[in-house]
Amino acid sequence: MDVEPYSAESSIASFFAAHAPVTREQCDEYAVHLAGGTATAVPIQGSFSYTVMAGDGKTKIIQFRDPSSDLDRKVLDLAGRVHQGIVPSYTFHGLFCDRLPVYAMEKLSGTPYVYVKHIDPLSDTSSEHSTTVGDFAKFFATSWNQGQDIDPSAAEAMHRDYQSRFELLSEKTGHITGIIDWPEATISPFGMSLWGLENLLGFMDHNGWHYYTNSDTLRSLFWEEFERTSTKSLSSDDKRAIQIARMAGLFLLHGFSWSTGGREVVKESSMSFKYLQAFCATNDSSL
């Protein structure tokens, strides 16, 4: 199984090919108009957006979004209130060229996790990585503590597009400094985005998915920190509901082709199916 290397330029080209006649140059000029300075594309682009840094010292993020993948600003506002300090504040600037939703955001500090993740399947991860897992547990516990009133279970501001590239952290300490890019966040039964934990417990290469040698310890650490941070106890019914939601979230994310609007089941030869094979065969027994 081949894992194609990521190319920001290819992603950018695909975005503008889908949104002609709007051009990259036009977007860069508008970003400078909004924030000043010069516009520089961020090194990792989202699937349905074009994002640049601008402003003095590159302190602002300007993002142009596919209108079919616009941000739900009510949910983003909720996420900002629940997860204060790690969700960027934003300003909506309407539709660029009457077509693309535009947002200006503060640029949070930190390095994308994908740049510093451990990729050796034969050795344990670092103490800094354990700190990252602990912070991720606090992120989920905060959602659990402030679950929204929907029936039948507690809810979270679910980051369905949560991937390792959208987590910022301090390389020195391992602490999470930001969770960014919330295009498909929604209110859902708690646990549906717990697949994000799996991304911290291993990595994918051309041979398939590899769990770290200390992944069981890290998984236990996650739930220990979750229960320490939680202000609401987990009943046996809660745990069962979370397990069911976790599995549903895995199938929603990796079981369908979202490039076609989620209308097609993924093929067995696809990367998504490989993730399903790895994650769905793993029972989170620490919960």
Number of domains: 2
Biggest β-sheet description? 5 strands, antiparallel
The CATH class name of the largest domain reads: Alpha Beta
N-to-C SSE series?
HHEEEHEEEHHEEEEHEEHHEEH
If you compute it from the alpha carbons, what radius of gyration comes out, rounded to the nearest whole angstrom?
19 Å
Shape: globular
Q: Which structural class should the secondary elements be placed in?
A: alpha+beta
Key descriptive features of the protein:
Aminoglycoside 3'-phosphotransferase, Chain: A, domain 2; 37% helix; globular; single chain; 3-stranded antiparallel sheet; Phosphorylase Kinase, domain 1; alpha+beta; 287 residues; 5-stranded antiparallel sheet; 14 strands; 9 helices
